[in-house]
């Protein structure tokens, strides 16, 4: 028999790349992770890992077992949701990770709505950058994540998630009010080729958007806080590309739409596949969808 708990260890290794990182995600020691993986190989009768000293990678058999591990995890989530649905009362806490502007626009209004309509349901919110929330969700640290993808970025494999679109917003360029283009109704990104830029840190998808739409931008300052970015723009330190709803006006700054088709940030809620029918998550998801702005996609609320 294959122990499904060991499949979870294999998934963590596939997600995080090293035994040490997998152990940190699972709150296990590296030795315990190695022991669990060795036991799983014995149960499968197949070599699942290639080992070079301290480095490991998945064999074809290991990659196949990760696919099965994902399916098993989804079925376990579905079983948990089905059992929870037998309880006539909906009470409990949902742990949620979201980036700041979505907390302001969607999460806080949803909490207010739940307090009035479903007082037995509460949320515990973590403010994290959008690209950091999905790992927390897959590791079981949160129950629901609000995150983002971009029109210009490829969609990654989401076979382990069920997604609920919330809203779509364009990126605008933020300029100092003293900038030569500050009074324009629209700005062509090519007109800013010689400007200094203030951008998010490497690894933040919003920085990737800038690198796609602007060839070789001269990045002068970096920050993952859009308010800090806007403040630096207002100080005359450069220009920036900011999602429309993340822009907070600072004296000395102005947001101007981009000409043509701007890059888009698509904001969605995600849960682990199989868990969407859990009554607590259904209640919270309904509140989030109701709170989402009216300019959302036509497919808003349709899980994918």
Structural features, described:
This protein is 39% helix and 24% strand. By secondary structure, it is an alpha/beta fold. Helix 7 links the parallel strand 7 and strand 8. Residues 295-300 have low confidence and may be disordered.
Question: Notable features of this structure?
Answer:
single chain, 304 residues, alpha/beta, 7-stranded mixed sheet, two-stranded antiparallel ribbon, 9 helices, 24% strand, transcription
Q: Topology of this structure?
A:
Blueprint: H1 4-16, H2 19-26, H3 30-44, E1 49-52, E2 55-58, H4 60-85, E3 92-98, H5 100-117, E4 121-127, H6 130-138, E5 144-150, E6 161-176, E7 196-199, H7 205-213, E8 218-222, H8 226-234, E9 240-243, E10 253-257, E11 264-272, H9 279-291
Parallel strand pairs: 3-4, 3-5, 7-8
Antiparallel strand pairs: 1-2, 5-11, 6-9, 6-10, 6-11
Helix pairs in contact: 1-2, 1-3, 1-4, 2-3, 5-9
Percent of sequence in beta strands: 15-25%
- Count of alpha and pi helical runs: 9
Main beta-sheet annotation: 7 strands, mixed
Order of SSEs, N→C?
HHHEEHEHEHEEEHEHEEEH
Whole-angstrom Rg:
22 Å
Low-pLDDT residue intervals, each spanning 5 or more residues: 295-300
State the distance separating the first and last CA atoms: 33 Å
The geometry reads as: globular
- Mean pLDDT comes to 87
Helix content: 25-40%
Structural class: alpha/beta
Give the beta-strand count. 11
Brief account:
This protein has 304 residues and is α/β, with parallel strands linked by helices. The protein has helices spanning 4-16, 19-26, 30-44, 60-85, 100-117, 130-138, 205-213, 226-234, 279-291; strands spanning 49-52, 55-58, 92-98, 121-127, 144-150, 161-176, 196-199, 218-222, 240-243, 253-257, 264-272. Helices cover 39% and strands 24% of the residues.
């Amino acid at each position: 028999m294959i122990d499904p708990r060991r499949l979870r260890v294999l998934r963590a290794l596939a997600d995080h790349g090293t035994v040490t990182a997998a152990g940190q995600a699972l709150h296990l020691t590296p030795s315990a992770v190695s022991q669990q993986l060795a036991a799983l190989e014995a149960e499968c009768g197949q070599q699942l890992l290639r080992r070079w000293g301290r480095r490991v990678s998945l064999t074809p058999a290991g990659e196949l077992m990760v696919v099965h591990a994902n399916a098993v995890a989804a079925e376990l989530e579905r079983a948990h949701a089905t059992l929870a649905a037998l309880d006539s009362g909906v009470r409990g806490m949902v742990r949620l990770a979201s980036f700041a502007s979505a907390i302001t626009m969607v999460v806080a209004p949803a909490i207010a709505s739940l307090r009035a309509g479903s007082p037995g349901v509460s949320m515990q919110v973590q403010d994290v950058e959008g690209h950091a929330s999905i790992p927390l969700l897959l590791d079981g640290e949160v129950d629901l994540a609000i995150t983002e993808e971009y029109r210009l970025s490829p969609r990654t494999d989401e076979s382990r998630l069920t997604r609920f679109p919330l809203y779509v917003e364009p990126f605008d360029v933020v300029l100092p009010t003293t900038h030569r283009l500050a009074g324009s109704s629209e700005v062509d990104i090519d007109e800013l080729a010689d400007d200094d830029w203030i951008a998010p840190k490497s690894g933040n998808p919003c920085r990737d958007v800038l690198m796609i739409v602007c060839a070789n931008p001269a990045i002068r300052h970096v920050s993952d806080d859009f308010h800090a970015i806007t403040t630096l723009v207002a100080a005359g330190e450069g220009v920036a590309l900011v999602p429309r709803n993340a822009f907070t006006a600072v004296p000395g700054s102005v947001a101007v739409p981009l000409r043509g088709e701007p890059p888009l940030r698509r904001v969605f809620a995600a849960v682990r596949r199989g868990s969407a029918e859990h009554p607590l998550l259904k209640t919270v998801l309904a509140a989030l969808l109701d709170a989402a702005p009216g300019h959302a996609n036509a497919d808003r609320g349709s899980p994918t």
